[in-house]
Automatic annotation (TrEMBL):
This is DUF4231 domain-containing protein. The chain crosses the membrane at residues 41-59, 65-83. Residues 8-170 form the SMODS and SLOG-associating 2TM effector domain. It comes from Candidatus Merdibacter merdavium. It holds the Pfam family SLATT_4. InterPro entries: SLATT_4.
């Protein structure tokens, strides 16, 4: 196997990993956004119901109304505390930021694959790959934690069945057609 082919295989694998992680962070942001919307609606409804219950207590004084008003107020307080302690919207933004950074990095891997196809110097290709890897690890180090649900959703979206193991077809599915791997490709390197 020639040096350029080794570099290409390594870059393709790194590209797939970045594409995979990018999609996971997109899906995690989607999950948190769905939770955020549900909690926002629940917060509004519970606040309105608590206000109605308190106003009703002014007009009448049954015990059941006091109990329901107290429960609804408790739910409203729980939702507000949940927002403050878990910072759901901040988590959405962190995952979106990480996804954007990974998308930019993914595009740089595509550009490097193009350079490989254009017969650039192997030493220059390796140097650029090492810079990309350094940038990748910097992004990974500051990336927020994801859930298994986001991994499953990303897997379904990208049709990838193995963690950190990608077939040529899976990688080709993420790349522009001109950078797909084919039988004629190996002879051109």
């Amino acid at each position: 196997m020639n040096d350029k082919l080794v570099v290409e295989e390594t870059v393709r694998s790194a590209f797939a990993g970045v594409s995979w992680t990018h999609k996971i962070h997109e899906k995690q942001a989607d999950i948190y956004y769905s939770q955020f919307k549900i909690m926002e609606i629940a917060k509004i409804i519970s606040s309105v119901l608590a206000s109605i219950g308190i106003l009703s207590l002014i007009i009448s004084d049954p015990l059941w109304l006091k109990i329901i008003s107290a429960l609804v107020s408790g739910v409203s307080a729980f939702i507000s505390t949940y927002y403050q302690s878990f910072k759901t919207y901040e988590q959405i933004e962190n995952h979106k930021r990480t996804a954007r950074e990974l998308l930019a990095l993914r595009d740089r891997y595509i550009h490097l694959l193009l350079k490989i196809r254009m017969n650039d110097n192997v030493a220059d290709l390796v140097e650029e790959f090492e810079m990309l890897e350094k940038d990748k690890h910097s992004i990974y180090d500051s990336a927020p934690i994801t859930t298994n649900k986001a991994v499953k959703m990303a897997s379904e979206a990208l049709k990838i069945s193995h963690d950190n193991s990608y077939t040529d077809d899976e990688i080709d599915g993420m790349l522009p057609e001109c950078l797909h791997k084919g039988d004629t490709h190996a002879s051109k390197l």
